[in-house]
Design a protein that fits this description.
10 strands, single chain, two-stranded parallel sheet, Rossmann fold, 6 helices, alpha/beta, globular
């Protein structure tokens, strides 16, 4: 398949790019800084731009079979709308080019998964990660209202450990360890691109 990946230079995004290429997909990675994606492959194309630039986003989506959104704000805890605004621009580009399939990575605790969090994690999200959670909330609302064939993947606490392929997935599941490898998140997203098991659903992935 032809996949446009947004947030391709983030830690989860890099895993998505690597695994997609390993599986034989053609990848268009949308990046602000091409030097941050040290991957060379004949099936990898780069579009350089800012996700806040709707025209640049649209260019990356043209001719794709699906778009994967793994946008983030890095380690910043400041108030931001980059996930929401970037996702809206992705949706607009998809509609412009008649691309129907959208997969978005958000976070466990967003939307109706809030009550699956422990009290400690609720406090953490409501204080330190309040700005990130608010951005994810409006991002998810935009996805759900898009009219596209969407799936939202909500990881629990992300780690840089290797892919295992073993994890729990569901709409209202609680975390056992509150940890999940970014590589396993990428594994689920790319399975969902092929299998379409969770269309129009938001699911949590955790261990």
């Amino acid at each position: 398949m032809k996949l446009a990946i947004f947030g391709a230079t983030g830690k989860t995004g890099i895993e998505l790019v690597k695994q997609a290429l390993d599986q034989g997909h053609a990848v268009t990675a949308f990046v602000r800084d091409p030097t941050r994606l040290a991957i060379e492959d004949d099936r990898l194309g780069l579009v350089t731009g800012d996700v806040l630039d709707a025209a640049a986003v649209s260019q990356a989506i043209q001719g794709q079979d699906a778009a994967i959104c793994a946008l983030g704000a890095g380690s910043s805890l400041k108030k931001t709308t980059i996930r929401t605004t970037g996702t809206i621009n992705i949706i607009l580009g998809m509609k412009e080019h008649d691309v129907k399939r959208l997969l978005a990575v958000t976070a466990m605790g967003v939307g109706d998964s809030w009550n699956t969090l422990s009290l400690v994690n609720k406090f953490f999200f409501a204080t330190l990660l309040k700005n990130s959670r608010n951005d994810h909330e409006t991002q998810e609302a935009a996805v759900k209202e898009s009219g596209l064939d969407w799936t939202i993947v909500r990881p629990s606490g992300l780690t840089d450990t290797p892919r295992t392929g073993v994890y729990d997935v569901g709409g209202h599941i609680s975390a056992k360890t509150s940890r999940i490898a970014r590589a396993d998140v990428a594994d689920l997203v790319l399975k969902e691109v092929e299998e379409n098991a969770w269309v129009s659903k938001a699911v949590t992935i955790t261990n």
